[in-house]
Structures are given as C-alpha cells and as structure tokens.
Amino acid sequence: MFWSSALAPLAREHTVIFYDLLGRGRSDTAAASRIALDSIVADLETLRGFFRLGKMGLVGVSVNGLVVASYVAAHPDRVARVALLNPLAPTADVQSSYNPPERAARTDSAAQREMARLRETGGSREAICRQFWKASMGWFVGDPKTAIDAAWCSVPNETADAALMWLGYLGSTSGFWDLTAAARAVTAPTLVMHGARDYWANPEGARAWAAAIPGARLLTLAGVGHFAALEAPELVNAALAEFFAGRWPPGAEALPH
Fold first, then answer.
1. Residue ranges of the chain whose pLDDT lies below 50
2. Residue 203, domain CATH
C-alpha cells in the first residue's frame, strides 16, 4: 500500500508483486498474538507458494526489511537477490538508541494538537491518521518542505497507531529483536540502501546490515529520508533496476566484515 505506486516502474522489466503485511493496508486485521515475526515470515512463504515462484527477488522497506532478512535466512534456496531500503536496524538496541534532534525540530505541533482534539471529540479514523502523519512526516523525509499525501490513511487498517504497533510485532511483548545471526546466514546478493537524511531508521543499522550480510553492499542516497521511495522514486528505482539486472548501482560500497 505504501510503496506500490512509487516502485511500480520496476514492473517494466520484472513481474512485481506487492502485498500488505497482516494487520496493515488491505490485509485482514489480526489479534496481537498473530503479529509475530515467525508468522509474518510464514505468510511470505505462503505467498511465494501461491504464485508458484521458484526463486524470487525481494525488496524490504523499513520494518519489512526485518521480515525479508529473516525470510532469506530461513529459505536461502528460494531467493535470487535482496534489496533492503531504509531497513530498521538488525538489533532492537541499535534501533532504539537512535533519537536524532531533527525529530523534535521537525514535528508539526499544530497537527499534533489537532490529532489530540480529534481523538477527544470522536473524529474519524482517517482524519486522525492524516493528522498523525502531518505531525510526524518531517521525521521521514529529507527536506521538511516535501509534501507527501498520506493516501494510505483511506484504508481501514491504517491508523495513527499502526506504525507504532508494528515496532512491537517481533515475537515478544518487549519488542526485542536481534537478527544478526539471520543477517550472517543470508547468501543471496544483497543491496542495502539508506537515505542520508533518515531520521527514523538508524543509519548505523544500515551499515550493520551491510557489514553482517556476506558480500552485501551499501548505497547511501543523498538528500532523502526514510520515505526515499516516495520522496525520490526515480533515484530509488534507478538503483533497484541496476541491482535486479545483476549489476551493482554506482556508489554501492562493500564494507569490511
């Protein structure tokens, strides 16, 4: 739902399948106990089987980078190439330690107040969702003047609390995760892409992924933030097109392991 329009150009050369994670977008709602990493990885395997895919390329954006990395580690024979775009860090400690001052500076206080008012007065779910993203969108873009329409708020499963809920879906109530071992088990060629102005996913996490995954390379995207695919779709799609054509995009660097 978030990324389908932005990454649609990949369909010029590839068959591209977009799907919403359980509890998000147009997928079914689910009990909190069902929103766990093992279950979500199993959903991806079910999807592969449904479409009768042999080997597939995977793109994991943001929190879905954790899902993709876990899937590739569990099913290395079913994945050809992997791209992680602004993934959350491979460990909860690295991710939770990231609290750049730009977040507070870029928060729209008026939108926060309006969101609080709507909650108190019984405003619509979509209106509250849109105010949430208006208040915090500055965290997710490189240029705070960038206008991104939170069109996903029109879908019933997208709420003001959905993004926060998904940070705690990793199989334990504490929201703890450590996917370092999973990263080291990835054998498919992997490109890690990170927006230079990402104020949500820790940039040290992107480097940690690229350093842990054997043979991976890191590509830093200048001037963009966490929503790089929405903010600069041509830049992101050009790099992905190169990678899925079997070439490293210009600027992709190998890190010491």
1. 170-174
2. 3.40.50.1820
